[in-house]
Design a protein that fits this description.
Layout (H helix, E strand, L loop, with lengths): L4 E15 L6 H6 L6 E15 L3 E5 L6 H9 L6 E6 L3 E4 L12 H11 L4 H15 L14 H12 L6 E5 L7 H16 L3 E5 L3 H7 L2 E6 L2 E6 L1 H42 L3 H7 L4 E2 L4 E9 L8 E3 L2 E11 L6 E9 L4 E6 L14 E10 L4 E11 L3 E15 L19
Parallel strand pairs: 3-7, 3-8, 5-6, 6-7, 12-18
Antiparallel strand pairs: 1-2, 1-4, 8-9, 10-18, 11-13, 13-16, 14-15, 14-17, 17-18
Helix pairs in contact: 3-4, 3-5, 4-5, 8-9
GO cellular component, one term: membrane
GO molecular function: ABC-type transporter activity; ATP binding; ATP hydrolysis activity
InterPro entries: AAA+_ATPase (IPR003593), ABC_transporter-like_ATP-bd (IPR003439), ABC_transpr_TagH-like (IPR015860), Bact_Polysacc_Export_ATP-bd (IPR050683), P-loop_NTPase (IPR027417), Wzt_C (IPR029439)
Length: about 425
């Protein structure tokens, strides 16, 4: 092992047996042994990385990619099928907070038990007891049985023990949202303090913002292999882009499923009313109204690269293309758009008259294009209403919920839209 390293992972593989129909009782297993069929699922397929002493790294990736399995291998909760893992120093893990806590024992008694699991002697625990109690902020409840604690109190006590064992290596798995907002800030400050003291830290988290605050390096694990490794500012945009594409695929499948469902419902209604689907379509408005002189045929969304999609990163360019069929000339036409959050809150609205475009008439079928250059809507699902009007606000075709769009972001700001801003800190 290199002298500058705290962790060395070399070509590690890990698989699990996933039983398809396994009996839960011995009798069932003996009588129905043919049910004990299983498949081998490879979670890690030969990953290798090194972590230097005092370095903080983050493991990112979608659910099931192998992040938590990697961390459990580092804690030696489980062992690899092949490859090697070498670690230097005392290890403290914040994976299953409170593992080993006994509900009938007091908080104080559980501190001794839990700290002993981490390898501390009674003398070492006594020396740290005041720090653990002070950090947990549970002084008045410390002699009560743990079963009387709320879930937040339970997690705070467990976290306080884990970070006060003076570990050389600290392993953290998705547990940074402990307690209330003030306590979370306290935990982050403690982690920064621990890092400054030279502790090696490995974090598994879906919160990229948390990783960027603490870690110098991110490792993106995808389908059991390392797909990218480097500075969080370099790796995270690539990861977010990939996740956006995956979300787009899911959205498209969901759209297809909904269309199939609507089509089936449409035919059932037509059969019930003993009319053709085409005749029924003419009688249905689907949240639309107007005089019908023009009808919106489709609303499609495109990214800056020209790719059709319905999932975008906050701040992206969104191109809206509206195809319409003309049945009668529309004089002094107006195209409008409204953006609504999924709970019905209107986020934005405008039209060609508000934007003071020159007057125009619709004399033939065609396509209207609208470029939304910098859409700063915060993560969530939104609906677009598209409208065609004529002259003095006469509705021609108002199409409610014409298209659904979803936004994602790695920034944790709140509200509806992101406002460009700059901070100037006191000197």
């Amino acid at each position: 092992m290199k002298p500058e390293n705290a962790i060395e992972v070399k070509d590690v593989t890990k698989k699990f047996k996933v039983y398809l129909d396994k009996g839960s009782q011995l009798k069932e297993r003996l009588l129905f042994h043919e049910r004990n069929r299983y498949e081998e699922r490879w979670v890690l397929k030969g990953i290798s990385f090194e972590v230097k002493k005092g370095e903080a790294i983050g493991l990112i990736g979608h659910n099931g990619c192998g992040k938590s399995t990697t961390l459990k291998l580092l804690t030696r909760i489980i062992y690899p099928d092949a490859g090697s893992i070498e670690m230097r120093g005392r290890v403290s893990s914040l994976i299953e907070l409170g593992a080993g806590f006994h509900p009938d024992m007091s908080g104080r008694e559980n501190i001794y038990t839990n700290a002993a699991i981490f390898g501390l002697t009674k003398k070492e625990i006594d020396a740290r007891m005041d720090d653990i109690i002070a950090f947990s902020e549970l002084e008045e409840f410390l002699d009560n049985p743990v079963r009387t604690y709320s879930s937040g109190m339970y997690m705070r006590l467990a976290f306080s023990v884990a970070i006060n064992v003076d570990a050389d290596i600290l392993l953290i798995d998705e547990i940074l949202a402990v307690g209330d907002t003030n306590f979370q800030a306290k935990c982050f400050n403690k982690l920064r303090e621990i890092k400054a003291q030279g502790t090696t830290i490995v974090i598994v988290s879906h919160s990229l913002g948390q990783i960027e605050q603490i870690c110098e390096r991110s490792i993106w694990i995808h389908d059991g292999q390392i797909r990218a490794e480097g500075s969080p500012r370099d790796v995270h945009p690539e990861y977010l882009s990939f996740m956006g594409e995956k979300r787009q695929e899911i959205a498209e499948k969901e759209k297809e499923r909904q269309e199939e469902k609507e089509q089936k419902k449409h035919h059932e209604e037509a059969e019930e009313k003993k009319v053709s689907p085409e005749e029924l379509e003419k009688t249905k408005q689907d949240g639309r109204w107007g005089n019908g002189h023009a009808r919106i045929q489709s609303v499609k969304l495109y990214a800056e690269n020209g790719q059709e999609q319905n999932v975008f990163a906050t701040g992206s360019l969104v191109m809206v293309k509206v195809a319409y069929e003309l049945k009668e000339t529309v004089k002094d036409a107006v195209f409008g758009i409204g953006v609504f959050r999924s709970d019905g809150v209107q986020c934005y609205g405008t039209n060609t008259r508000i934007d003071q475009l020159e007057e125009f008439n619709l004399t033939k079928s065609g396509t209207m294009c609208l470029s939304l250059d910098h859409v700063n809507l915060l993560p969530g699902e939104y609906w677009l209403d598209i409208a065609i009007e004529s002259e003095v606000g006469i509705p021609v075709d108002y199409y409610r919920q014409a298209a659904k769009v979803e936004f994602y972001s790695q920034i944790g700001d709140v509200g509806i839209a992101r406002i460009d801003h700059k901070w100037k800190l006191p000197e």
